[in-house]
């Protein structure tokens, strides 16, 4: 064949060169992606779609509320006075020797390197130092002094006892009844109830004063973990959750009109992220759950959290100040079915609860019980005890100022100096004891000689004793130690 006949295979000025096999791009074989080994077993062959899965919300940010933080600060300043008052009221004659009281440092929250006498002298209107007439020494020492209540503190304790015994006895018994109904076995340990009893307005001797007066409701049982308060079989249906009155608002405001879209009530000054707000709206769209009825078997995690929030709301609604410590609620996690990460759940629901970090221990408030200015919408009758105790603290501060100035009539007292003085107590506190330790260690016994046995609360060393003796001699020199009476004989 002629060469001209093959001319169609070439292009003018662009000859076709043979292809190099090394330049060809060959498709690489798909390498199998190694799958992680897992021991999870799925019952269904297909996984749920990604749209049906709940999107995780970012960790919520704790937004401070100054109005509620002030309540937590007030309770923190009264902590030492309340605990010492509880110890003295647990004794028949309402006094304790100072050498015995030093073994209760952990319960009182006094560190080892601090003497106890200055803490007692901080409240001269509530506590007093005395020595018994039968052992009247030439120079009172640490082994002869005792701490007792003043007449004003005696009157306060008697008035609160009369109020609990007459008018408020049915209401206090109803609180215990509702607490026991929220447990699956209708039983709670007495040592656990002691943590929550002061917040509910109950006295520490409720085991001997309140419960025996209602044999149709309560009975005591001995368990492997200690004494337990058990509910008598009651065929009545479970009660409804505690209602709280809505805040009083004017009807002419535009924001108070009925809304046509889902609304999330938040306190003033609180803004949430879009994902967090959407999560709370979906949470409140779930069916209502009663805290007195157990969940059905196989309930979802959202329904379990729904019931846990209802239980915490019920407990806070029964407290006197509509607040309690987060540590107190953690004692009831297994009894009430609360999650292990209880504080995270409380922070995750700012529309219902507020966690205050004021003080040594964190407090939780029921938001719907307060207005925007931090005032209680409905005040409990037992709040008179807190108000009178605060008045005695202020009276003691005026007495201390008068002693420094040498004048008994001192005006212009303010709470600013009180905060400065009491912050020394809050910042120096170490491990804080619990009210439940009173029953476990025998501090709440009938005889003060039984006090002791608390781990880490033994008497201090020689240096601590010398420091305590110094403050005792200083108190005697300043005339702050009474001579006692015939009722104070040891």
Automatic annotation (TrEMBL):
<dbReference type="InterPro" id="IPR021099">
    <property type="entry name" value="PORR_domain"/>
</dbReference>
<dbReference type="Pfam" id="PF11955">
    <property type="entry name" value="PORR"/>
</dbReference>
<feature type="compositionally biased region" description="Pro residues">
    <location>
        <begin position="235"/>
        <end position="248"/>
    </location>
</feature>
<dbReference type="GO" id="GO:0003723">
    <property type="term" value="F:RNA binding"/>
</dbReference>
<dbReference type="InterPro" id="IPR045040">
    <property type="entry name" value="PORR_fam"/>
</dbReference>
<feature type="domain" description="PORR">
    <location>
        <begin position="63"/>
        <end position="398"/>
    </location>
</feature>
<dbReference type="GO" id="GO:0009507">
    <property type="term" value="C:chloroplast"/>
</dbReference>
<dbReference type="GO" id="GO:0005681">
    <property type="term" value="C:spliceosomal complex"/>
</dbReference>
<protein>
    <recommendedName>
        <fullName>PORR domain-containing protein</fullName>
    </recommendedName>
</protein>
<feature type="region of interest" description="Disordered">
    <location>
        <begin position="232"/>
        <end position="252"/>
    </location>
</feature>
């Amino acid at each position: 064949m002629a060469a001209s006949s093959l001319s169609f295979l070439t292009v003018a000025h662009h000859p076709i060169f043979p292809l190099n096999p090394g330049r060809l791009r060959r498709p690489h074989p798909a390498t199998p992606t190694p799958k992680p080994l897992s021991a999870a077993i799925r019952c269904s062959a297909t996984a749920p779609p990604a749209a049906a899965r709940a999107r995780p919300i970012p960790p919520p940010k704790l937004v401070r509320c100054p109005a509620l933080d002030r309540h937590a600060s007030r309770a923190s300043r009264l902590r030492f006075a309340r605990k010492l008052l509880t110890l003295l009221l647990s004794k028949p004659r309402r006094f304790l020797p100072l050498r015995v009281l030093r073994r209760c440092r952990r319960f009182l929250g006094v560190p080892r390197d601090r003497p106890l006498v200055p803490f007692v002298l901080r409240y001269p209107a509530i506590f007093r130092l005395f020595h018994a007439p039968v052992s009247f020494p030439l120079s009172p020492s640490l082994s002869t002094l005792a701490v007792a209540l003043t007449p004003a503190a005696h009157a306060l304790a008697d008035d609160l006892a009369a109020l609990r015994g007459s008018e408020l006895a049915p209401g206090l018994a109803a609180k215990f009844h509702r607490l026991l109904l929220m447990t699956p076995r209708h039983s709670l340990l007495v040592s656990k109830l002691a943590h929550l009893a002061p917040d509910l307005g109950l006295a520490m001797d409720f085991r001997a004063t309140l419960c025996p007066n209602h044999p149709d409701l309560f009975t005591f049982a001995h368990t492997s973990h200690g004494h337990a308060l058990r509910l008598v079989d009651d065929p009545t249906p479970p009660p409804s959750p505690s209602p709280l009155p809505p805040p009083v608002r004017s009807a002419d405001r535009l924001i108070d009109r009925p809304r046509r879209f889902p609304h999330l009530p938040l306190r003033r000054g609180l803004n949430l992220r879009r994902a967090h707000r959407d999560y709370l709206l979906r949470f409140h769209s779930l069916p209502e759950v009663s805290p007195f009825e157990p969940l059905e078997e196989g309930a979802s995690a959202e329904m379990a959290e729904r019931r846990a929030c209802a239980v915490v709301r019920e407990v806070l609604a029964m407290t006197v100040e509509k607040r309690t410590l987060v540590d107190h609620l953690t004692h009831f996690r297994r009894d009430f079915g609360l999650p292990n990460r209880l504080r995270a759940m409380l922070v995750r629901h700012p529309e219902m609860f507020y966690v205050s970090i004021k003080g040594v221990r964190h407090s939780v408030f029921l938001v719907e019980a307060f207005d925007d200015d931090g005032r209680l919408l409905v005040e409990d009758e037992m709040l008179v005890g807190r108000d009178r105790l605060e008045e005695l603290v202020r009276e003691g501060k005026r007495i201390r100022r008068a002693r420094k100035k040498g004048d008994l009539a001192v005006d212009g007292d303010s709470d600013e100096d009180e905060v400065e003085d009491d912050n020394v107590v809050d910042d120096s506190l170490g491990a804080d004891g619990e009210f439940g330790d009173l029953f476990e260690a025998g501090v709440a016994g009938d005889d003060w000689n039984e006090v002791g046995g608390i781990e880490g609360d033994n008497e201090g060393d020689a240096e601590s004793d010398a420091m305590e003796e110094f403050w005792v001699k200083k108190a005697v020199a300043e005339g702050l130690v009474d001579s006692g009476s015939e009722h104070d004989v040891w």
